[in-house]
Amino acid sequence: MTDQNAQNELRVAIAGLGSIGSKIAAALDQGVEGLTLSAIAVRDPAKHQAFLSGLRRPPQILAIDQLGDAADIVVECAPSSQLRAIVEPAVKRGRAAVVVSVGGLLDNFDLVDLARTNGGRILVPTGALIGLDAVNAAVVGTIHSVKMVTRKPIDGLKGAPFIVENNIDIDNLREPLKLFEGSAREAAKGFPANVNVAVALSLAGIGPDRTQMQVWADPTVTRNVHRIEVEADSARFSMGIENIPSENPKTGMITALSVIALLRKQRATLCVGT
Ligand SMILES: NC(=O)C1=CN([C@@H]2O[C@H](COP(=O)(O)OP(=O)(O)OC[C@H]3O[C@@H](n4cnc5c(N)ncnc54)[C@H](O)[C@@H]3O)[C@@H](O)[C@H]2O)C=CC1
Ligand SMILES: O=C([O-])CC(=O)C(=O)O
């Protein structure tokens, strides 16, 4: 790479090197046109030593609130409890923040105003979902309703606050059990690590209070299954995706790929899809 090219590259920082962050870091290190991995933030650097020293161009290790100093785009890939600590300093500096813990945005929505005031941006990838391009288009007209049904294997739901607080035993299920029915906003409170997709869908469309969802614990599935029905004045469409879980059983493998695709688009000459 020439110095000129290096200067033109967008610098990307990643917060959190778990199932999503480590895939994005590896892809950037392998080379994505126009982008360079400049920094990462991890909770425990020693745990990631082997991974980091295997990278061709190891990034700086910084505190989560410093990533915006070293990057044009900060990618949040940590638990939603860390969302504000990662995104606030980045957008205050006018950086773009890619948010995967989308559910966490609902309680921190002032970050969008903060980004606007400071010339920053918040980018939500399609993530483990499908078809947000069609939802984005339909909402330019009128969407009448959005309904989503999520089914996950038992391992993908364990520990969700809704299950713990309601003392629901899902370990011995033999058939599917509907755990929850309500708005995407309420679902995000009860299943913060499970329904980021529903919140992304709601933000693309008619909002977290009007987007309806069901969550099922399903011992008969091995994938994280999401089905969506949209009724709009321009179209009626149904979408479905069956995600193979990553090493984190709550997280579909496609999530990291979706973020990589979003990052590629930031510098691509040919962009396909809205
Ligand atoms: N938008 C979407 O479609 C999807 C979003 N998600 C969400 O994405 C987020 C990340 O998911 P995974 O990578 O599967 O989780 P993970 O648990 O595999 O990784 C999270 C990483 O963040 C690290 N971490 C925790 N506190 C930190 C801190 N203070 N500073 C730096 N790193 C810290 C952890 O050590 C861990 O390595 C979660 O909030 C998850 O719910 C997951 C699936 C789909
Ligand atoms: O990976 C999935 O299928 C969806 C998921 O965990 C989420 O929305 O948080």
From TrEMBL:
Entries under PANTHER family matching the protein: ASPARTATE DEHYDROGENASE DOMAIN-CONTAINING PROTEIN, L-ASPARTATE DEHYDROGENASE-RELATED
Keyword NADP: yes
Keyword Cell membrane in record: no
Annotated source species: Bradyrhizobium betae
Reactions accelerated catalytically: L-aspartate + NAD(+) + H2O = oxaloacetate + NH4(+) + NADH + H(+); L-aspartate + NADP(+) + H2O = oxaloacetate + NH4(+) + NADPH + H(+)
Molecular function (Gene Ontology), one example: aspartate dehydrogenase [NAD(P)+] activity
Protein name: L-aspartate dehydrogenase
Family, as annotated: Belongs to the L-aspartate dehydrogenase family.
Pfam families xref list: Asp_DH_C, NAD_binding_3
Segments forming domain Aspartate dehydrogenase: 174-260
Active site: H226
E.C. number(s) listed in UniProt: 1.4.1.21
Source species taxonomy: Bacteria, Pseudomonadati, Pseudomonadota, Alphaproteobacteria, Hyphomicrobiales
Binding site for NAD(+): A128, N196
Gene name for this UniProt entry: nadX
Keyword list, A-Z: NAD, NADP, Oxidoreductase, Pyridine nucleotide biosynthesis
Miscellaneous: The iminoaspartate product is unstable in aqueous solution and can decompose to oxaloacetate and ammonia.
Pathways per UniProt: Cofactor biosynthesis; NAD(+) biosynthesis; iminoaspartate from L-aspartate (dehydrogenase route): step 1/1
GO BP terms in the entry: NAD+ biosynthetic process
Role: Specifically catalyzes the NAD or NADP-dependent dehydrogenation of L-aspartate to iminoaspartate.
Domain Aspartate/homoserine dehydrogenase NAD-binding: 16-125
InterPro entries per the UniProt record, alphabetical: Asp/hSer_DH_NAD-bd (IPR005106), Asp_DH (IPR002811), Asp_DH_prok (IPR020626), L-Asp_DH (IPR011182), NAD(P)-bd_dom_sf (IPR036291)
